[in-house]
Automatic annotation (TrEMBL):
Name of the featured protein: Beta-xylosidase/alpha-L-arabinfuranosidase, putative, gly43H
Endpoints of the signal sequence: 1-25
EC numbers, comma separated: 3.2.1.-
Domain Beta-xylosidase C-terminal Concanavalin A-like: start-end pairs: 359-529
Enzyme class: hydrolase
Record-annotated active site: D71, E226
The UniProt record lists the keyword Signal: yes
GO molecular-function term, one example from the UniProt record: hydrolase activity, hydrolyzing O-glycosyl compounds
Length: 551
């Protein structure tokens, strides 16, 4: 049963009885603290025990897409919804996800096959029955530019990327003006006119809007107006923008809005700004921002944005869903309240698949949906060959620090991954938790001994002699505490590796890059490794909300 304090706070939060945002935040922080001591709700459990947002009783608990899925861009296409995210240095990239209820999401496929550099916040849109993705990317040694790909079917095939030569810009937002012409808004907040086919620009980049400024005493990272997303409703164009910086202090990132009767302005600030902002480290979600508005299946309205999970920056920025309401004066407010509590799902949506299996028997090619190379070179895909229920990965480089590992995205606070490895030739291979080439941990073997990677380097003093060409390796991440095991008999018995590690600091605020800590497989040297039977299993840890409990 709930104690009186939590029961009262819960009723106040849900009913919206606390009028002041700051008083509401204080009440929510107290409730979050109480929930930490005795969890009130837990996530649903899906395939492999992965946490799911849908609680099965008409409610959901954020995140709707767990794990590293930042900068969400969402498209309503009839009764279907599609969403994609920043894919950074991973290729194939720009994985599209599908939903019919805004809560349950499953991947469709990767839209970007050609490496154009690191990919940040995109914009997915549809115009005249054709789909477009506007992509900010920075190839090595080149400035940022915005590219576009298009498709007549959202499931592909997608075109090769076309460079629009909008240099030095990120975070595109597509809009069609009252004149029927197409425009692209970018960070700044600036805009440039597109040709009617959306595949080139006309005219020059120009100032569009001077965003609302927060008080100087607020604790933020920097002003950084970015992520402009536009929509038209009635006689108004609405411009939703992120300010305050993406990471840094947890109270920095936020969502603001403006509106105008013309795509060319003048824009007026929303009187409710900021619409979303983390106010305290006690809240369950930090650095909330970069939002897009979307109409639900029933005609109600929602806001999709990203945030870091309290205490789990290593998982990257995850995707959240929050209801909004339109007010009589034509503005809107966020109505999610305490995001550690369940909310009613969007009405009239049809629940579909949620997430995907991360385990892989390598019987089919899942590159681009499940696996991707980190920061691949031009011929990286030539390293991969599929056999019957096996993937052969050729070695390159001398260590994980100069090789491109295969990575996948973890979605839980605690999980276990394991994999069978068979070496051939002069190869070394292993299992990592990989942030970037300067931040990773893991173990590998070369047929003579097991190597220990810590602080992005191998520690020779920790080598374990092992004469074998076949090995099964297990890595357990229990809320940032890493344990390794290895088996010579394909998992029938396990040997504990003598070193444990703690990885809570392997995230953006330490190493930059806005990435996440991912399970990864590496192979270096001139030989090959044969991969079999990769398994992922979510674990229930103390304090981890994994399935709902009664009140």
């Amino acid at each position: 049963m709930l104690d009186a304090t939590r029961r009262g706070l819960f009723k106040a939060c849900v009913a919206g009885a606390v009028a002041s945002p700051f008083a509401l935040a204080a009440a929510q922080a107290t409730l979050v603290g109480a929930c930490t001591r005795a969890p009130l709700w837990r996530w649903g459990q899906g395939i492999e025990g992965q946490r799911t947002a849908d609680l099965g009783d008409g409610t959901f608990l954020n995140p709707i897409v767990p794990g590293d899925h930042p900068d969400p861009t969402i498209l309503k296409d009839g009764e279907d919804y599609y969403m994609t995210f920043s894919s950074f240095n991973s290729y194939p990239g720009i994985v599209l996800w599908h939903s019919t209820d805004l809560v349950n999401w499953a991947p469709v496929g990767a839209a970007l096959q050609k490496n154009i550099g690191t990919v940040w916040a995109l914009d997915l849109c549809k115009h005249n029955n054709r789909y477009y993705i506007y992509i900010p990317a920075a190839a090595e040694g080149k400035p940022w530019s915005i590219y576009v790909i298009w498709a007549d079917d959202i499931r592909g095939p997608w075109s090769d990327p076309i460079d629009l030569h909008i240099e030095g810009c990120i975070d595109p937002g597509h809009a069609v003006g009252e004149d029927g012409k197409r425009y692209l808004f970018v960070n700044g907040i600036r805009k440039i006119r597109l040709t009617d086919d959306g595949l080139a620009t006309e005219g020059e980049l120009e100032h569009a809007y001077s965003p609302w400024r927060y008080p100087d005493h607020w604790i933020v990272e920097n002003f950084a107006p970015e992520g402009p997303k536009l929509m038209r409703r009635g006689e108004w164009f609405y411009l939703v923008t992120a300010v305050g910086g993406t990471a840094g202090p947890v109270t920095g990132h936020m969502v603001i809005a403006a509106r105008a009767r013309s795509i060319h302005g003048p824009w007026e600030h929303c009187p409710h700004n900021p619409l979303v902002r983390t106010l305290s480290e006690a809240e369950p979600w930090w650095s909330r921002g970069h939002a897009t508005l979307v109409e639900g299946p029933k005609g109600d309205w929602w806001m999709v944005y990203h945030a870091y999970e309290n205490g789990f920056r290593t998982l990257g920025r995850q995707t959240l869903l929050e209801p909004i309401e339109w007010t009589d004066d034509g503005w809107f407010r966020a109505r999610g309240g305490d995001l550690s509590l369940p909310m009613a799902k969007p009405g009239q949506g049809k629940a579909g698949p949620a997430g995907m299996a991360l385990s892989d028997d390598f019987s089919r090619n899942r590159l681009g949906i499940h696996w991707s190379f980190h920061q691949p070179r031009a011929q990286e895909m030539s390293r991969v060959k599929y056999l019957e229920k096996a993937l052969v990965l050729s070695g390159t480089g001398h260590s994980p620090a100069d090789s491109s590992p295969l990575t996948c995205t973890a979605v839980d606070r605690a999980y276990r991954v394991e994999l069978s490895l068979s070496l051939s030739g002069d190869a070394e291979a292993g299992l990592l938790l990989f942030y970037n080439h300067k931040a990773y941990v893991g173990i590998g073997f070369n047929g003579s001994f097991i190597k220990t990677h810590q602080y992005a380097e191998e520690h020779p003093w920790a080598r374990v002699p092992l004469k074998n060409r076949n090995l099964r390796i297990r890595l357990t991440n229990d809320r940032h505490v890493i344990t390794y095991e290895y088996s010579r008999d394909n998992g029938r018995s396990w040997q504990l590796h003598p070193t444990r590690m703690e990885v809570s600091g392997l995230h953006h605020n330490v190493f930059g890059g806005f990435l996440s800590l991912k399970p990864a497989i590496y192979c270096v040297g001139s030989g090959q490794v044969q991969l079999r039977d990769f398994r992922y299993q979510a674990l229930v840890s103390p304090g981890q909300f994994q399935a709902r409990s009664s009140t």
